Amino acid sequence: MVMMGEMWNLGSTMGTLMLVYTLFRQFFPHHLQLYFEKYFRKVSGFIYPYVEITFDEFAGDFFKRNEAYSAIKSYLGDKSSASAKRLKANVVKDTESVVLSMDYNEEVTDKFEGVKVWWSANRTLPSTQRISWFSDDDEKRSYTLTVHKRHRELITRSYIGYVLKEGKERATRNRRRKLYSNNPSHDWHGYRRSKWSDVPFEHPATFDTLAMDSNLKEEIKNDLIKFSTAKDYYVRIGKAWKRGYLLYGPPGTGKSSMIAAMANLLDYDVYDLELTAVKENAELRRLLLDTSNKSVVVIEDIDCSLDLTGQRERNKTEKDKKDEDRSDPITKKIKEDEKTESKVTLSGLLNCIDGLWSSCGGERIIVFTTNYVEKLDPALIRRGRMDKHIELSYCCFDAFKVFAKNYLEIDSHSLFGEIETLLGETEMTPADVAENLMPKSNNDEVETCLSRLIEALNDAKKKKKAEDEARLMAEKKEEENKEVKENGVATAADEVKENGVTVSH
Ligand SMILES: Nc1ncnc2c1ncn2[C@@H]1O[C@H](COP(=O)(O)OP(=O)(O)OP(=O)(O)O)[C@@H](O)[C@H]1O
Ligand SMILES: [Mg+2]
């Protein structure tokens, strides 16, 4: 086994050779340089029998960090804190834990199947000083792996793969989950330099706190767990490891809460995609491709945020268009700006989803929510894009029992029977039920909360009855008017016949 000191001696010999080589290049003609270079490689290969592999922080896309670099960083984290002499400490935001990593130009060793390897962290500073808004902005960072060339095969074939896998797993274990929201595109290369902004994801909703039909809840939980563990299955059937959910129902029925519960169950990040801030289809595609594995991509209120300007334009009447032409210049300008604000189209969104499905390897879930499922284009929600359609509706007795357990810590009560009947006769959202059950003061007893809910349910029942009656009256009146009209036409026709006049239409 080659010892560290030995490697450094070889390193300094190499340094001398490099110096000679550089001088040679400056003073000798080109054809001699090529000749010398050939022999230089041979000699250095003989004296310095190591292979060096470098992993740059940014490879290819400048705005996307090289995944290998990040994985190596987390793999080396623990090893560095045990053996490196100079360490960098980072306090993870909002937590008290400190993450240690090796400082630049430090070196740590690792062993794999009895073979020793050396890792070093490198940093290259820019040659010219520039004023920059960003710290560390122009530095080039990398890790270098050094290994004896006789182990090259083992290291490239097995060790690197092992390091990347271990590093990714370690990063997943230590990571804090995040809630991302998309930045407007002028920020992508500007101040923030990122397509997404993130905050820690700390929504407390879980499937235990979700009030809904217990069978449906179990079905959804099983579906999610099955999906998250079905990598091999998806490979076998040749389908991308993705799943789309459509959550629909009236406001306050728990759609957003369910998204949080999904992310918490699977330990995924959440990407909250605000479509109205996306200017065009190409931007949408870049945003989606920049999401990470193990994430839920959410588009809330899809019926409102999807720009169907084309459709609306087509449906405009001639009068609308004339009115628009006549409006003052400022109104005209605002209207034009509104039109150009978002050009994401339905077909663009469909293409992006399909593109996301086919171009990103890891598991991803995409969720759409809407209050008006009937408004959505069937192409958007067909199976394969939105695999599971889940209706979240008004509060049922099952859902109420979840609230009673969570809010009041009770499983049964003499008032439960009355509440069950009333819930069957009214339409109250889980949000309203929850609001009524919440104790309003420290003195509020369980009975007070339940009675308040009963009162609210009775009010809702009365309101619904009054509305039903008003609707029936209106329908009856309309029917009567129709009859009067029809009779009137019939009488007129009879009179015409009697007078012997023929009317041609
Ligand atoms: N099924 C539910 N289980 C538990 N809590 C619920 C449920 N539905 C609503 N809530 C409560 O009501 C509030 C509103 O719920 P949520 O935001 O999930 O509704 P939503 O369906 O997303 O509404 P919207 O359509 O307006 O976006 C939440 O704070 C949540 O605590
Ligand atoms: Mg919501």
UniProtKB/TrEMBL annotation:
As its record notes, the protein acts as a catalyst of: ATP + H2O = ADP + phosphate + H(+)
- State a single Gene Ontology molecular function: ATP binding
Pfam families, A to Z: AAA, AAA_assoc, AAA_lid_At3g28540
Among the GO biological process terms of this entry, one is: response to stress
Q: Where is the composition biased (Basic and acidic residues)?
A: 474-486
Keywords carried by this UniProt record: ATP-binding, Hydrolase, Magnesium, Nucleotide-binding
- The region called Disordered is annotated at 313-334, 474-505
Hydrolase: present as a keyword of the record? yes
Please give the InterPro entries that the UniProt record associates with this protein. AAA+_ATPase, AAA_N_dom, At3g28540-like_C, ATPase_AAA_core, ATPase_AAA_CS, Mitochondrial_chaperone_BCS1, P-loop_NTPase
Q: Do the record's keywords include DNA damage? A: no
Q: Which cofactor does it need?
A: Mg(2+)
Q: Which family does it belong to?
A: Belongs to the AAA ATPase family. BCS1 subfamily.
Q: What is this protein called?
A: AAA+ ATPase domain-containing protein
Q: Which organism is it from?
A: Hibiscus syriacus
